Amino acid sequence: PCSDRDMCGIIAYLGPRQALEILLHGLQRMEYRGYDSAGIAVLSQLADAAGSGSEGAAAAASAAAPGTAHPVKVVKRAGKVARLAAAVEAAGIEGSLGIGHTRWSTHGPPNDSNSHPHCSAGCEVSVVHNGVLENYGSLKKMLQAKGYTFSSDTDTEVLAHLVFDTRKEHPALAPEEAVRKALTLVTGAFGVVFLFSDQPDLLVGARRGSPLILGVGEGEYLLASDASAIVEHTKHVVYLEEDTLVTVRRGGYSISHITETGADGKPLPHDPEVVELELSLEKIEKGGHPHFMIKEIMEQPEVLANAMRGRILDDGSIHLGGIKPLLPRIAKASRIIICACGTSLHAGMVAEYLIESMCRVPVEVEYASEFRYRTPIIKEDDVVIAISQSGETADTLAAVKLAKEAGALCLGFVNVVGSSIARQTDAGVYLHVGPEIGVASTKAFTGQVVVLSMFALALAAERGTLSKEELASRGLALRDSTKLIAGALANADKAYEMAKSFRFAHSFLYLGRGFNYPVALEGALKLKEISYIHAEGYAAAEMKHGPIALIDAFMPVVIMAPKTDPTYDKIKANMEEVAARDGCLIVVTDEGNDEFDSRAEHVLKVPESPEWIAPLVYSIPLQLLSYYIAAFRKCPIDQPRNLAKSVTVE
After folding, report:
1. pLDDT confidence of residue 612
2. What is the dihedral of CA 247, 168, 185, 131, to 10 degrees?
3. How far apart are CA 220 and CA 234, in angstroms?
4. Fewer CB near the last or first residue (10 Å), C or N of the chain?
5. Distance of alpha carbon 11 from alpha carbon 14, whole angstroms
6. What letter would DSSP give residue 77?
7. Three-state helix/strand/coil letters over 1-13
8. The whole model's pTM is what?
9. pLDDT at 618
């Protein structure tokens, strides 16, 4: 199976064109998600109906009635999509119906056998799958007892045999109903697409806990786990809801609930609207940069300005349409709980400082993965905020479900429009920073901080905890923060030069206080994610409670030291403690502050900013330093090992 950080990628095509090229290009578009193997399955056209090109494929597909078995050509390879493309190049694969997949291993090592698609013994049923089947062990034993044999270590292969067995035992069932019946036996998460050798006019998709999108083109349909795989073919999509199944034929599609039925006992139909993607091809290209990560770092002034456009007015007031009707209820909350994972958690920690200082509301920041399992105390007057770039993070989604069951108001702060968190929360705010392709989050982090800052200001206005003058001043200061970020980016050459020597380091410490403590955590995370150098972030005062034992001349220590920080003098004392132990000091401080020039080995300077805006500015040199160190180490920056873009299973 796959963990989708959106780990793994699904692409499927049904239409008049040759499927193979569309599948391969779709898989290439999703490479940023992280994967270790890839594969395709194409329903071949029959020889007696074959012509050449797309017209021949379409004619062949419609020539044989359902029930006539077509050959299914399956090619799978461990490694990159390029290796798969080389394998299929000489295979002469033709057909206008196919499925493809990129896999990130969870059950079984990355090899050709464990790659998707997986098939029944005679390729009567082929399937691609994102997610984890929690009860696959018991299902596998049941199928083995019936004589089925397995050729892989994965849980996904169970689905192919299970659906085949269901059709065998219930021959009168339509294929989509066989899928529905089989899925009622499954426990766990799945985004799946099935292809049948005797159904040249059919794809069946379903989702539970893992995203799936239907692309509606002109006379053609695509199914995918990621919009980037289909945007070059259509911008009209349907986001499948939780626990729904889609039946796709050349003449149209229908969507229904997997388990819910109407009064007539038939599956309850579902008719979500077709929406237009905000994504464009230009936004998912590198734009002349060597990696998506550096492109996304450099475009932060522009995309953050977009995130604030129309939301911070000329008088400094804040307008967040998505939550405005609920602000009176939010203002009465006895507590705000923020649930997130990874980088989003660090943005939530910044929000804790923002909301408590500006709004005087207690805030708790929770790892969503822990929150969902520790029987938390949630009250009806609590507000739970879920933060996720993709909007599909499994643990964060589970936290939302738990909070809603307890009666709390749930807000979603996500980047991907139409994502599961956006649909399942009561209200929320989109980041609007554009697609983030690089696995290591950069502009999504600053985008989250910007949007959470606007939220804090809007809430402070509703609660009356800041004067109108202060609110206006802060609103305009936030809008102007893009200039400070641009100034920090202008010093990229300094980070580049530092990276030449620090690429040889084995470990880093990052220290910050107050608003910059989460920045220290985020800086350490960025470095370990893409350079594979061990790094840890700490609240600077905690250094003496253990980490100080690690400090020597070979340990780079990065300290955030803005002069606007109320604890600036204490930060200087922390720096002296590092220097006294011959630690390798890297200080990030304000332009014009020369106090560290003779004490630190390296000083990175950024434009001076108010204390509460500092996280936006101080995160920039840390992003740059991580990127350049990874580049000098020749690491696969956009696709670091063992990582992918969003985690949609546990």
Report:
1. 97
2. -60
3. 9
4. C
5. 11
6. E
7. CECCEECCEEEEE
8. 0.74
9. 97
pLDDT for 51: 42
Q: How far is Cα 486 from Cα 257, in angstroms, rounded to an integer? A: 49
Residue type at position 35: Y
Residue matched to tokens 């007696």: 48
Burial of 469 (0-12, 13-18, 19+ CB in 10 A): exposed
Query: Which amino acid is present at 21?
Result: E
Q: For helices 81-89 and 19-29, what crossing angle results, to 10°? A: 170
Identify the pLDDT of residue 31.
79
Separation of alpha carbons 624 and 618, rounded Å: 11
Cβ atoms 295, 283 nearer than 8 A: no
Partnered with residue 196 across adjacent β-strands are 125
Fill in the DSSP letter of residue 536: E
Q: What are the CA-CA distances from residue 536 to residues 324, 356, 402, 635, 644 (Å)?
A: 38, 26, 31, 20, 21
Q: How many residues does the chain have?
A: 650
Q: Rounded to whole angstroms, how far apart are CA atoms 183 and 288? A: 45
Which residue in the list 76, 80, 140, 645 is annotated as catalytic?
Answer: 645
Residues 6+ apart with CB under 8 A from 84: 24, 27, 38, 39, 40, 75, 76, 77
Amino acid at 227: A
Within a 10 A sphere around the Cβ of 93, how many other Cβ atoms?
20
Q: Which residue has the tokens 């930060």?
A: 571
Give the bridge partners for 206, in sequence order.
192, 245
What's the farthest any 2 CA atoms get from each other in the chain?
A: 83
What would the two tokens of residue 360 be?
Answer: 């005087």
Report the chain (650 residues): mean pLDDT per 10 consecutive residues. 56 96 92 80 68 45 61 91 88 91 78 91 95 91 96 93 96 96 93 96 94 94 92 93 95 95 88 83 75 95 94 95 95 97 97 98 96 91 96 92 95 90 94 88 97 98 97 97 97 95 93 96 97 94 83 89 92 86 91 91 95 97 97 92 61
Per-residue tokens: 121: 């013994």
The three-class DSSP label of residue 453 is: helix
Catalytic residue status for 8: yes
Count of beta carbons in the 10 Å neighbourhood of residue 415:
26
220: left (phi over 0), alpha (psi -120 to 50) or beta: beta
| Other Cβ atoms closer than 10 A to 325 | 9
Catalytic residue among 8, 119, 339, 359: 8
